Amino acid sequence: MVANVNQIVVADGDLKVLDAFERLFAGQYRVKTFDESEEALKWIKENHGVSVIVSCANLPGRGGSGFLKASETYVPLATRVMLTAQNSVEVFKQAVNEAGVFMFLSKPCSPQELSSAIEASVAHHSRMVFERTLLEKTLSGSVKLLIDMLSLFHSEAFRRTSVMRPQALKLAKVLEMKKTWELEMAIMFSPLGEALLPKEILSRYRAAKTLTESQREILAGAPAQTRDLLKNIPQLEKVAEVLYLSGRGYDGSGFPEDGPTGKDIPLTARILKLLTDLWYASPENGVDAAAFEALGINHRQYDPDLLKVARACLLSEALGVDEREITLCYIRALKPGDELVDDILTEGTHELVLSRGHQLTGTTIRRLDQYNHVAGIRQPIRVHRPAPVDTSQAPEKATA
Questions:
Q1: Per-residue model confidence (pLDDT) at position 48
Q2: pLDDT band at 98 (very low <50, low <70, confident <90, very high)
Q3: I need a labelling partner for 187 at 20 to 30 A (CA). Which of 89, 178, 240, 327 fits?
Q4: Domain 322-390 is in which class?
Q5: Does CATH number 1.20.120.140 belong to domain 158-320?
Q6: 234-242: which pairs have CB atoms within 8 A and are 24 or more residues apart?
């Protein structure tokens, strides 16, 4: 019985090497072997839970360095090990510079040396995963705080994120996306370019009024501006690229003019474009059949499979009734975790302060209180309040 869930992939043209790996590690790890590069890559693409990838330098197909570099697209955190009987400096340089190899092993390799190398590689992978998870959690918290602040100053631009985020997560679940972090970050940052636009251009664009040539250029440059703001932040490089391509149509229309088409557009960018356009096409009370009919007019701009999934997933949900209890309260009684049922508006001018669906944090509540003292906010406020956690059934702690 395998005592460890770590998956080891071994690619080597020598069947004796593959047999040796299977015999040596069968009781410790899940071992998958291949004698050439393309079948190995195909398997890795469909099985992302890979901890270590081992390849010989002269692997049939695209070679060891080419195979290890290609695998990074699907499992970027997997540790890469190269087996080689060559002592060429060029082989080592190519493997390190292009394939990010963690360790070299010379053929022939003793079982003890091989075991130590794989153990060190698995440990390295675990550290990488831990550090990546910690960084993502820290970055997510920082982004959430930033978006909360921007929502108060640019409420109209950011009001759609609270609607689109749960929609995106539902789509991701149906599509069996294993990681949704980049999708969530892209949704949260999607209004950033719009928020940076001059108010005159934004108001004319929303009202479908004619724009001057210079105004159209500024509007068209918003995705690039967003990308340039985010691309130098660690872990947000891919998010920046997704936002840059989120206006690109499946049929090649939209921005940028020389961008990819069809399935070459990242899935996250295709989801973001669909949900953004769906939000603009939907009425205030949420998605309906008419919104999808509106998207159908320009259906070539959307991934047909994604459009079909979204219609089935989101429209059936919209037909349901939200049976959650509604709590009516004043600002001083709001609690972190409360979800707004309605838009929060100013008392006199009825200007939007914070959009419905927004989940409140302590910082947001404090800012609302300050805003109320300055401009006045319509109260009471309707919220969905999370049910308190019942701790009465929790086991008692043992005492000495």
A1: 80
A2: low
A3: 327
A4: alpha beta
A5: no
A6: 234/135, 235/135, 235/136, 235/139, 236/139, 236/185, 238/182, 238/266, 239/182, 239/185, 239/186, 239/189, 241/266, 241/269, 242/182, 242/186, 242/266, 242/268, 242/269, 242/272
